[in-house]
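Record 1 of the preview.
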Amino acid sequence: MTDNLKLYQTMLLIRRFEERALAEFSTGKLFGTTHAYIGQEANAAAVFSVLREGDIVWSNHRCHGHFLAYGGDPYRLAAELMGRATGLVGGRGGSQHIQWRDFYSNGIQGGFTPIAAGMALAEKNTQTGNIVLAFLGDGTLGEGALYESLNLAALWHLPVLYVLENNRIAQTTPVEQGVAGSMAARFQAFGIPTWEADSSDVLSLQPLARQAVEHTRSGQPAALILHTCRFAAHSKGDDTRPREEVARLRAERDPLTIHAARLSALEREQAETQVAACIEDAFSRAEKDNYPVFQVSAPLHSPAPPQQQPSLQAQSRTTVLERLNAALHMALENDPRVYVLGEDILDPYGGAFKVTRGLSTRFPNRVLTTPISEAAILGLSTGMALRGLRPVAEVMFGDFITLMADQLINHAAKFRWMYNDQVRVPLVLRAPMGGRRGYGPTHSQSLEKHFLGVPGLKVLAPSVLGDPAALLLAAIAEDDPVLFIEHKLLYTRPLLQPADLSDWRLEFFGQPFADIALRLSDDLSPHLTIATYGYNLELVLAAAQELIYEHEILPEIIVFSQLSPFPSTVSHPFLQSAAKTRRLLTVEEGTFTLGWGAELATRAAEHIAGVKVRRVAALDLPIANSKPLEEAILPSKETILQAALHLIK
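->
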């Protein structure tokens, strides 16, 4: 087969597949929507013709053409569009969310750009020689995550090629109304070499694609801007352009018509016959396949039998900060896949709260300081994790996790399930949370409740009980993303030793993320159950002492290390204790409404008839800077005590 014929067949396969997909929507065989690549086929044919095996591709919502030019199976793609079990990701992703070998796509505009950079960093550090392609649309130029990614790609010399396909219109917005200034200047402002073409001729595009790819393979980012035209609607039928305009574009810019003139009539006829048979086979086979069967996965949190009086594995009076720091040193020393990244984490500063001190001195190539680019920090971590590394990212203040929410919820936490368990995302995001230090409304919040219901994400919180180092090391060993909540006041607190808890008997449940039960003597019947986590244990213990010695009220305390997923079995000590006492008090520092405690209360009510519940949390207000106001807003020993007494009435 000649190169010209191969390029033509690639473009023809894309065209006929997209036409068939659009036609099948009217029959009800396909689900959701689709974004056809019709008119842009020359771009994919040219770019993929100069790649090599092992190169990584990130595509977007308009991904079918890229996938087919990559060499993907039309049958598996058709099955995915039809929601069949034989689809690329078992019907879980549909048109926009597919994964196969080193090909990925996602429908969030700009969201995968830092992930692509993270993958490029992994390829660079493991010296594979592979590059990463990130396919953008003109609409993506409005997304901030893109510019965070360009900055880091340029700073760190990452082998990522940004392919911008400007088809001159977003969903219905012409590019003139959505993009100011020069597209090329956006990349050039970061020192990224840029190639640019306005053509639908695959042979004109191929040399530019080769130059951009070769530059990227030399170890530097590059951009390839392809001004093109789409002939179909944005999705199925939302095209607001005049029909005459689309007809003119087809007449002047059809890449198949342009390239077909280079082939003989026999070659064109043979290509049409072969592609038609391929498309018919793909869709007819997919239509006969079964739909996936929904299965409820096993509980993610199944407590193990209790361990009596566990050792803390830490020297007496070691602080939480020291143990977390020791864990990071240990992880970097023992596993070359572990990287640490975040803002201002290099020595001599060592991070805003000094948890990363000493790391960059010992491991200069695996401790990466970043600009103020929260979305990119987590996106890069996700890309690194997808390529087999185990990044530990730090957000300077937990309040800034809101800037990472898209990366955490729509990407890192979702990929494993969305891509049908074909990938893993082993990353840890460390987030200093909490108030009582006078930092004010944007640096003092406890925002973890907003992430507790995210499927695929574990949320952990150390306390002064147990060993925070062991908890962090267990998180790093996880194959799924973990949000690690560190209350800022805990850093200077020493770990509690058995002598500090002479009134209590400790039991650990559910390794490796052990929740802890503090119980009084077996011959004393407790009156209420108090559930809490993190720093709030300090307040709970203070209130408990007064309950015991001033009011003769005996509590049991359940200290959670794993906040999410929530307990899913009645054997969890929290539910067992609440079943005994019939009184449950939850204590957290997040705001009251729709909080962690509300979920625990609901689960207790579902399993325990007649259980009484009270919740202690921050008022539904921002955290004040003024210390008296801050104290009035946040939970205290007094509010815990009053809530407990109310339960006993």
